[in-house]
Amino acid sequence: MAMAAILLLFLTLFSNSKADQDFDIRQHLSTVTRYGAVKDIVDSSFSSSDIPDACTPLHLNLVARHGTRSPTKKRMRELEKLASHIRELVKEANYNNVSLQKVPAWLQQWESPWKGKLKGGQLDRKGEEELYQLGIRVRERFPDIFNEEYHPDVYPIRTTHDYRKNHELAVNKMKEPILVEITSALVKRYEFKFTIHDISSLWFLSKQESSLLDITDQACSLFSPTEVALLEWMDDLEVFILKGYGNALNYRIGVPLLKDVVQSMDQAIKAKEDNHAPGSYEKARLRFAHAETVVPFSCLLGLFLEGSDFERIQKEEPLNLPPKPPQNRKWRGSIVAPFAGNNMLVLYSCPANFSSKYAVQVIHNEHPIPIPGCDGTDFCPFEVFKERIVRPHLKHDYNTLCNVNLDHSKQKPETSKL
Known about the structure:
alpha/beta, elongated, disordered C terminus
């Protein structure tokens, strides 16, 4: 009996050690994750559709997030404050003859890599390369669409302005218990007087060092894999509540974008049926934006939902929060909207003898993804896509949603444009 217990303990410790060795923090940084670290992480239980050879790509819509970028000026100042506070703690410990033996040497002398920078939030060279390589792969994947010289009428490119929503108090309150728990653990582990603000800033530093500087043996190494999983979940909750399914208004305001996507497909179909000459009609609409655009758009499509949640969002019922680790969840910021994360909607033209003359394939981060509204497939008849995915959202008027002073009894027809 005792031997069995010892063997079980050994196997458990070995299993945990192996899991820790296999843990790659670069895949667990929520929306600060580099594209290359996660773009090929897919649901292995899903088999993509076999699109008939007779069906050919006719038009492509791309909604992509910007690539890896430097921290904003506000976050740079936060890191400089962190460095200042760490210096104060080290000085205090030395003055009181408190041992710093367990505090990593790099942290005792750390200065922010962005100290003195005048600009923030710019696309990093890595971010430029992410988007450049994405463009190369998309062009090679759809040669029937990208077979003409560039012209803005054939391949229009659209971008969004920077946009930030203020953090909600409820979100910060929700994050607090996680930060308190991890702060307590790190204070005990390193025998150093970290504060909750220090831990929050160190977690931010971990994400920046890993994504921008390819450094994973400094701030990242302060946290155990279990702690990283909790911090990642904490960030994912924030994205869920402020940009995703946590509030129906988050994705309702993306309806003009969804309408614009469908309109571009209707125009492509008309151009084909009217036999327009090559070069005289649009073949792809390319949009580059922020997570505040990409995440709501994914929600409008019903991606990354659990079970019967699709029916609930169409009824605009509140959804449960993503489950806490170690439970599995579909909603992960690193997958939903990493740097350069993207959705592509490809319109296909099929022969007249097919069940549907036109169909839409939804591709997320370059991989086909199941659409709940289309019976869990990635390839959906265009009319079904419009009826099940688009139409339920069209009851909302953008101007009404975004003007809290507007009398709902005097709603005007929707006139908003992307």
